[in-house]
Amino acid sequence: MLALENTALPEIIDGLPNISGWEAEVLSVVNNDAPVFLPTTNIKLENVKAVFAIALHMHQPTIPALSSGELISNLQYMFAHPHTGDNHNAGAFAWCYSRMGEFIPELVSQGCNPRVMLDYSGNLLWGLRQMGRDDVLDHLQQITCDSTYQPYVEWLGTMWGHAVVPSTPIQDIKLHILAWQQHFAAIFGWEALARVKGFSPPEMHLPNHPDILFEFVKALKECGYRWLLVQEHSVETINGQPLIDKHLPHRLIARNSQGETMSIIALIKTQGSDTKLVGQMQPYYEAKTLSKLRLGNVEIPPIVSQIGDGENGGVMMNEFPSAFKQAWWDMVNNGGGKSGVVGVCGTEYLELIEAAGCQVADFPACQPIGQHQIWQRVSSDNYQPEAVENAIQEIKQVNPNFHVEGASWTNHISWVKGYENVLSPMYELSNLFHQKFDNLLLEGDSSITKQVDYRQALLYNILLQTSCFRYWGQGTWTDYARDIYQRGQHLLSSF
Predict the structure, then answer these.
(1) How many CB atoms lie within 10 A of CB 95?
(2) What's the predicted TM-score (pTM) here?
(3) How far is CA 170 from CA 111, 209, 213, 214, 416, in A?
(4) I want to staple 348 with a disulfide (CB 3.0 to 4.6 A). Which of 37, 224, 228, 359 is the partner?
(5) What is the C-alpha to C-alpha distance for residues 86 and 311, in angstroms, rounded to an integer?
């Protein structure tokens, strides 16, 4: 990375976010094993009985909403149409995207020991710059890059276009991951990117199809990620039971239909999806009820991990600021903020327990929900795609509720059923994109990803996969998806 430290990436190229062209440089920066928090952390495990980690998820989709047809942030549209729906909240949303840049310095100056993890979609980061909200990005820059505040903040990587992984074309998963990493480096620098080791899947949506999960974990590991955040009810033990030790880090096991296996560390997001859990700092109060647990030969503090929307709803807009500050003040009054029950960042926690002697091999294992039923029906000497597919079909006949669409923060929404009018064009555009470019890349022409046509086509491809075009139902949002598809299809057909 030393050769890249003084090589600033352009953030915007030809009016587009910088999401391609420096793939080799990104991979050279992120694939390092250097400790991130261990050299600076002020927490000593022997003084701690339990910890908690909170993450704030921030996202605004990109939509084709101006009369000129320009792609803009939905936040920009909200500001321009304040009397539609809840668009009057646009100003509050913008402040929510910025306010950690105020809260962290304030709390540190008061002698507190705060921690927060941040998950911002690529759409949102680009949209803020498009809108000229440099003030928001400057606030984030300070707590990301200033060594005074950096030990208190951890960024989590994500899919650039806020795509739910299980229904994203497999060949595009790594494109989203790399696009976010490159865009993040362009905004905050290479050194900041080198510190991003945790991953937050959009909608907490974890694939449970063996091949999709395997490719997802493979892409994460190839892109330098050490761990990801996983929803408690989206995983099971290897024997198909609910998790027993949800306050311990786990090994998420990925086995594909060929029998290949790999694993990645998972921190378990506990309980449900209610943003109130973060908004009222429930993870801190839950951690206060816990005591140390044995992992292998070491006693470690358990961790309560939780993520919530950082801006959505009255609790996050209005109650969270005071609850957030009150929790850190309370910790200062009960152990000085460094003992007893304390906040941590995910990577910080994993580095601390590793330094204390924990081995990843001792972490309890888990797998996506429903996979136990699959592997029960596939003989260990018969790993092949046909055997796995047959097993899936057998289970569906016995259990009509079984599916391999993955599991997310909510079980009452399907990201697949009823959205053929979005999914079919999405897969078609992805296929067109790869038909145009894959052979050129295989021939070794890496310069293709620096070209404006490639970047534009990639942008349309990953924008179309944004979850909002399904989450918000049929109508305006599926119309947005159709518009983006038509633009991408026209561009790719004109080459």
Answers:
(1) 15
(2) 0.95
(3) 47, 11, 9, 10, 15
(4) 37
(5) 13
CA 248, CA 266: separation in Å to the nearest integer? 9
Structure tokens of 123? 């759409």
Cα separation, 49 vs 322, in Å, equals: 25
As a three-state string, the secondary structure of the chain is: CHHHCCCCCCCEECCEECCCCCHHHHHHHHCCCCCCCCCCCCCCHHHEEEEEEEEEEECCCEEECCCCCCEEEHHHHHHHCCCCCCHHHHHHHHHHHHCHHHHHHHHHHCCCCCCEEEEECHHHHHHHHHCCCHHHHHHHHHHHHCCCCHHHEEEEECCCCCECHHHCCHHHHHHHHHHHHHHHHHHHCHHHHHCCCEECCHHHCECCCHHHHHHHHHHHHHCCCCEEEEEHHHEECCCCCCCCCCCCCEEEEEECCCCCEEEEEEEEECCCCCCHHHHCCHHHHHHCCCCCEEECCEEECCEEEEEEECCCHHHHHHHHHHHHHHHHHHHHCCCCCCCEEEECCHHHHHHHHHHCCCCHHHCCEEEECCHHHHHHCCCCCCCCHHHHHHHHHHHHHHCCCCCCCCECCCCCCCCCCCCHHHHHHHHHHHHHHHHHHHHHHHCCCHHHHHCHHHHHHHHHHHHHCECHHHHCCCCHHHHHHHHHHHHHHHHHHCC
What local confidence, expressed as pLDDT, does residue 6 receive? 61
Q: How far is CA 400 from the centre of its chain?
A: 30
The torsion defined by the Cα of 307, 308, 310 and 311, in degrees rounded to 10, comes to 170
The alpha carbon torsion through 63, 64, 68, 74 (nearest 10 deg) reads -20
CB of 308 closer than 8 Å to CB of 96: no
Residue with tokens 């009222």: 280
Which residues of the chain are modeled with pLDDT < 70? Answer: 1-6, 66, 272-274, 406-420, 471-473
Q: How many residues does the chain have?
A: 495
Write down the pLDDT at residue 110.
97
pLDDT number for residue 405 = 78
Quick one: pLDDT at residue 411?
A: 56
